[in-house]
Amino acid sequence: MLIHGMQKLTLLDYPEHLAAVLFTGSCNFRCPFCQNGSLVLAPGREPVIPEEEIFSFLKKRRGILTGVCITGGEPTLYPDLPDLIRKIKALGYQVKLDTNGTNPAMIKALFEEGLLDYVAMDIKSSRQNYRKVSGCPVLSLDSLQETIDFLTSSSVEYEFRTTVVKGLHEKEDFADIAQWLAGAKRYFLQAYQDSGQILLQMLAGKTADSPSPLPKLEPFSPEEMEEFLSILKPAIPSARLRGTDR
Question: How far apart are CA 62 and CA 8, in angstroms?
Answer without folding.
Answer: 12
